[in-house]
Amino acid sequence: MQMCPAQSVKTIHIAKTLLGMTRRVIVGTTLSLTLICAGFGCGEHNLLIPDPAIRYLVFGDSSISGHPSRNIPDILPELLGQPKETFANQGQGGETASAGLERLRRILSLGVYPNAHTLLYWEGGADIINLIREVDILLLFSPDAADYPDFSRLNEVLAHVQDTVETVIAEGRTAGLNVYVATYFSLREAVTPCDPLFLDIILPAQARNANVYVLLLNGRIRLAAINQGAVVVEVASADDLLHNDEANFLNCNHLSTQGNEIVARIFADTLRQGEGD
33 FRET partner, CA 20 to 30 A, in 95, 141, 213, 269? Predict the structure, then answer.
């Protein structure tokens, strides 16, 4: 039998050691991804890789995820002079406040963004859309009118959104995040494409009724922020500017890139003020 030279034995030992290290790295990475997939599922929008570069967690519904080519998490870094890689776009279209709370809890518990210091939160609109579909899909009634079909359900949904936003703020602050919560812009009172409604279009009278819901929702968001010590991003303050140009909107409840640039400036101004305090 031929004996291996000492140098060959040493080389084989080093190779085995490196192979063992590689296997441990693969197993560790696979385990981490398995845990993340267990929490989120591994669809296109759910697979999350831990990212220590993230400083700003931008979280919400389709107002965050964005329909145009440039959304708010794309624009904010430019306005703030920060690297784009420090912003996480965690927008999920159609997500209710309670579903968002559970998703945020998983992100925080898994430590996906261990170095994040700021949470920008924008949710609650989907809850109102679901309520309208349930109670008054044709938007025939204003929620402040005496003949509104179901005040009990209206108040239940608004209270639930406020409670959920308060919980988000409290848990975000417990996780060491500076929390900002955004109000919603109102709808243009014009004939506009509108997917949430029965005929995929909204008329001016329907938009006026919808805007009363927006006022009520924004009031609850502000109360939640006051109660839990968050900063309000007053997107609603841009209503007149947004409404002046129909090109600011893609449809009744989503902004174009041009509209997102207006709203992103409000986020940026609020962040500068908050970070300067």
Answer: 95
